[in-house]
Structures are given as C-alpha cells and as structure tokens.
Specification:
Elements (H helix, E strand, L loop, with lengths): L1 E2 L21 E6 L8 H14 L2 E6 L5 H6 L7 E5 L2 E7 L5 E14 L6 H5 L3 E4 L8 E5 H5 L9 E4 L9 H8 L4 E5 L3 E2 H17 L4 H12 L9 E4 L10
C-alpha cells in the first residue's frame, strides 16, 4: 500500500490515553490503524522506546482529529512518531488543471464537513483531503495550523513517517518554531512497508545505539536503502541538529 498525498479514514473504539506532561513520555500517533494496521510495528517501536526509558502512549484511529493536533504541543511528549498520511495541497485552477503547492498537510481520521473549524478553513490552515476517489473526505492540517496550536514542544524530536513529510521546509520549520529540537521526514512519496521497516531501524540507531541524528539516518539509509519505488529518503531539520543524540 502506498502512502499517497491523500488520506484514508481510520477508526477505533478504544479511548485515548490520559496524558500528564512528563519529560520521559513518547507517543506513537497511528492514524493508519484500521486500514493499514501493523501491530508488529507498534509493538516493536514501543519496545525500543520503553527500553530507552520512555513511557509510551499510542493515539490511533479516530483519536487523531484536528483538536488532537491542536493540543499535541501541550501534551509533554519528548519523542513523537507520526504514523499518519501526509502530502501536498493540490489546487484546482480555473482551466480545470491542477497545480501542486509547496504546502504540506498532516491528515486526520476525522470526517470532513464545511461547518467545523470554519475559521481555520477560511484561513487555509485546515483543508479537506482523501486518499483516493473511493475514500471519504477527512480533515488535514498544515504548518500554519501547527504554529497556532496550544502550548510548546519541549525539545521534542518529531519523526514524521508520511509521504512528502519533508519535501519542503514548511512543516519541519513549523515544528521547530513551536519548540521541537529536530524533525525527521521523507523527501517524497514512500511505500508503507518500507517506511515501517526504516523507522524501526532508525529507532534502534538513535535509541539503542545512541547514534547522532546524522549518523543514525545515514546508517539506516545505507542499510535499508531509499524507497524501492519512489527513491525517497530520510532528511532531518534543522541541519544543526545532526550532531545531537536523543539524550
């Protein structure tokens, strides 16, 4: 299954975790739960994070809403894994052609409607999105939305697993401006099987082997390679964070 620039609607029935801000907390945001569920990935990632000393929450399916993204900086997580669809905004021109804009969106599992988040929609901070023509529209949020979210990230590391999550600087810069110390994302479209495997290898490098960001990403790319279909690769922002470790 390919992570494309449009998102699926996911759902789950478990209640979201109750969060108390804590410097040792990590989170896996798994918006892909229902359609592209990978319990082995969640278990393995959780084990690596817990072995390092983090306590781990998992927010999944319909937990992942516009309101969730709005409060995310205030929840006290120091390591954030975004297993969510992401992509670029596509504009429909007057001549019925389409134009891809350099604006990156993170997708929710919340059904889209014109009557919610009206101010954010009118200000182009929130948009509608879908994975394909057979999927319902859901909400998606962009970098301007992240900048206006509640609270601040407290030196957090953001690992964005979705397509084109670091094709442009807008989303990485927004997270760092909001208090994150580093942002890791993909240069282009990526297949889910590849990104799940790459993420686990990278977590082992950063947490188990205590490599720097630049060493960990370089080691993972050398071992796992670029995406076999789209040639995309991992990048980190800002460049000054490359010599830092998670510690």
């Amino acid at each position: 299954m390919v992570l494309v620039a449009l998102v699926l609607l996911a759902s789950c029935n478990t209640p979201p975790p109750t969060v108390t801000p804590n410097s040792n907390k990590a989170v896996i945001v798994d918006q892909l739960t229902m359609r592209e569920y990978n319990p082995e990935f969640i278990a393995a990632a959780t084990h690596i994070l817990e072995s390092y000393g983090f306590t781990v929450d998992v927010w999944k399916g319909t937990d992942v809403t516009v309101d969730f993204y709005h409060k995310l900086p205030s929840l006290g997580y120091r390591f954030i894994i975004l297993r969510v669809h992401s992509g670029l905004l596509v504009s429909l021109e007057a001549d019925n052609t389409t134009r891809v804009l350099d604006t990156t969106y993170l997708f929710t599992a919340e059904n889209y409607t014109t009557t919610k988040y009206v101010g954010d929609q009118l200000a182009d901070r929130v948009s509608n999105a879908m994975m394909d023509e057979n999927s319902p529209l859901v909400f998606a949020v962009n970098s301007e939305f992240i900048k206006r979210a509640d609270g601040k990230f407290n030196g957090s590391i953001i690992l964005a697993m979705g397509c084109e999550s670091y094709k442009y600087n807008d989303l990485p810069a927004a997270f760092v401006e909001k208090g994150a110390v580093a942002y890791i994302g993909w240069s282009d479209v990526v297949t889910l099987e590849h990104v799940d495997a790459v993420t686990l290898d990278l977590l082992n490098n950063l947490l188990t082997a205590n490599m720097t960001l630049s060493q960990g990403i370089s080691s993972t790319m050398n071992l796992m390679g670029k995406d076999p279909y789209y040639n995309s690769y991992l990048k980190y922002y800002p460049s000054a964070s490359g010599d830092s470790t998670v510690a």
